Amino acid sequence: MDERKIRVVVAKPGLDGHDRGAKVVARALRDAGMEVVYTGLRQTAEQIVETVLQEDADAVGISILSGAHTFYFTKIIELLKEKDAGDVIVFGGGVIPEKDIPGLLEAGVGAVFGPGTPTSVCVEWLEKAVAEKRAKEQ
Amino acid sequence: MNTEYKDARAKFEAGVAKLLQKHKERKENFTTGGGLPIRRLYGPDDIESVDYLKDIGFPGEYPFTRGVQPTMYRGRFWTMRQYAGFASAEESNERYRYLLSQGTTGLSVAFDLPTQIGYDSDDPMAQGECGKVGVAIDSLQDMEILFDQIPLDKVSTSMTINAPASVLLAMYICVGEKQGVPMDALSGTIQNDILKEYIARGTYIFPPKPSMRLITDIFEFCSENVPKWNTISISGYHIREAGSTAAQEVAFTLADGIAYVEAAGKKGLDPNVFGERLSFFFNAHNDFLEEVAKFRAARRMWARIMKDRFGVTNPKAQMLRFHTQTGGSTLTAQQPENNIVRVTIQALAAVLGGTQSLHTNSMDEALALPSEKSVGIALKTQQIIAYESGVTNTVDPLAGSYVVESLTNEIEKKALEYIGQIDDMGGMLTAIEKGYVQKHIQDAAYDYQRSVEAKETIVVGVNKFQIKEDKGEMNLLSVDASVGERQIAKLRKLKESRDNIAVKNVLDDIRTAAADESTNLMPLIINAVRSYATEGEICGVLRNVFGEYTENIVL
Q: Under DSSP, is residue B453 helix (H, G, I), strand (E, B) or coil?
């Protein structure tokens, strides 16, 4: 079977400039053998979705610490659905209060990784999620 | 060293070698958090090369290793300056008055991201961000509300604002005017440090060249009109938060400082004069001894740089005065109460390092914006160190400690290596353009993460001593989405009620002046602010003339 490498877009939506977490996660995913595209700062939801489509990515990881998480996660999921890309896995992390997480999961976010999560946990979760997604597509 | 010491030391070492055969130490290699090797024991031979008068000296005297004042905290404590701001000007004003009533001695304003990046609250780019990580300020009107009943001649204010620093300083000047406080009586600081935005923090607007011009325009304007104002706070804080080591924090911050002094020199400003108004901002992390050494090394290095590189003879322009904030990124979402202890250790390091001003982080910051209760505990932490610990009763109590002096030397040596490499590259602007600084910071961040995951670095409650927790009970602060709507409504009303022809004229003046490098923009920006032109309008004009910076992504 021709096993395509996992392709992930790591994105920084909005005006938040704290990109240490995004960059550390991007490097960890790359070290785990995935193809990683990092968007850089100040991306609108539209720009992020455009990158996901152009890169034909399996997943998009969103890092946000500014409190605008609910706005951006929901908007990105909405736009993906509009573009018939609702199957793209959406996950993320940052400073996201526990009480907001159930709402995000309900909106279609696959997982939210809080501060202190080992990168290996993200890697394993994503490998599994992508495998399930690909199995469904076959 | 005398032979008696040498013999005694050799005898001691022989005894230790024997002991080690039976009882191994916890690790093969001990290092500081920043990776500097730490020896088992430090003694007089470790500081043999230190010349007291040349390298340490007396407090208040060159090279200021022991502090910038002869009596330090025996005279006056550091300024307890808690960084705060959220939602709208009304809510933040209430928080400031609470902090002042609790004994805080200076204000520090946190602006929301749209304000930091020059967007009004109704800009599409501001969606979802209004009032979230700081207060939303669109016009002088908001600033008047922010400082309502706060006398600007009695309180000093620090504003964490960089790319649009001139606009916010102009607003502060105009609020002073309305309160009847003249410009030359205002005291405080604007961060105004754009270089660290490109390296580590990301809230830039314009490309480096016009950004540097805005900064030196402020230097020039303030040296004539706002003489008590600290016109820049050269910030290592964000560099450290982005993942750098302690030595890199010192190196890159001082290298930024060198770039500012050079830029101001090119404009014809005298470093003996504007040098007095430069201030610094450092981080305090957990590795206590390394942090104390870092502050002492930074102070000595800056004095030497100003004297040797720039020929500065005015002692006040040689001293490195600094604000410290405890390390946000060291705080854990797990067992948040433990963060109170981390903050205490870090704050003590800052005090023993001789800081002029201190912000202590709140225990819940890895989870949300700090609540009033957690801010209160953070402030009390400083008060307990100041009033109860006794460390403030003598100046620089750790001076002469074998390990502290030795580490101070090590940090200086390591930081000078980085500065040398940056000089070889042609200076900080080139080093940033090449991604050199960013790359070093990111490598250090990744190394740290791997060392935590490999449990070489222990973080209590995260990779050891975990417990099952229920965070349901924490009372966290969240900002309502309606702040954005209210702010937009306020802005609409303002634009209907002000003299829009006057606004158009002052904005045109800025446009013309922006294109001519020899004009100082500050007086024009003050005029614009006074006629209630918004921050977004002023920055919009400058964006059109200067262009916008796009980052060079380094992974």
A: helix
User: Which residues 75-94 in chain A show a CB within 8 A of chain B?
Assistant: none
Distance CA B126, CA B149 (A): 29
Mapping DSSP onto H, E and C, the string for chain A reads CCCCCCEEEEECECCCCCCHHHHHHHHHHHHCCCEEEECCCCECHHHHHHHHHHCCCCEEEEEECCCCHHHHHHHHHHHHHHCCCCCCEEEEEECCCHHHHHHHHHCCCCEEECCCCCHHHHHHHHHHHHHHHHHHHC
Query: In this complex, which of A28, A68, A97 lies closest to B132 when CB atoms are compared?
Result: A68
> Can you give the pTM of this predicted structure?
0.95
Q: Can you tell me the ipTM of this complex?
A: 0.93
B464-508, pLDDT tens digit by residue? 999 998 766 566 677 777 899 999 999 999 999 999 999 999 999
Burial of A135 (0-12, 13-18, 19+ CB in 10 A): exposed
- Assigned token pair, A113: 């990784």
Residue A80 half-sphere exposure, CB side, CA atoms within 13 Å? 25
Strands B188-190 and B229-230: parallel
Q: Which of B232, B257, B240, B242 is nearest to B326 (CA)?
A: B240
- Structure-token pair, residue B97: 């008055």
Q: How far apart are CA B548 and CA B341, in angstroms?
A: 42
- Work out whether strand B232-235 and strand B278-284 pair parallel, antiparallel, or are unpaired: parallel
Q: A104 CA to chain B: closest CA distance, Å?
A: 15
Residue B386's contacts (CB-CB under 8 Å, 6 or more residues apart) are B73, B77, B78, B80, B351, B392
A residues 3-32 lying closer than 8 A (beta carbon) to B: 14-20, 23-24, 26-28, 30
Q: In this complex, which of B133, B243, B332 lies closest to A115 when CB atoms are compared?
A: B332
> Which amino acid appears at position B290 of this protein?
E
What are B112-136's pLDDT values in tens digits?
999 999 999 999 999 889 999 899 9
Cα–Cα distance between B356 and B289 in angstroms, integer? Answer: 19
CB of B436 closer than 8 Å to CB of B425: yes
- For residue B152, give the nearest of B123, B179, B184 by alpha carbon: B179
**H or E segment and range at residue B403:** helix B402-425
Report CA dihedral (B185, B188, B192, B193) to the nearest 10 degrees: 140
The CA-CA-CA angle for residues B412, B417, B419, to 5°, reads 90
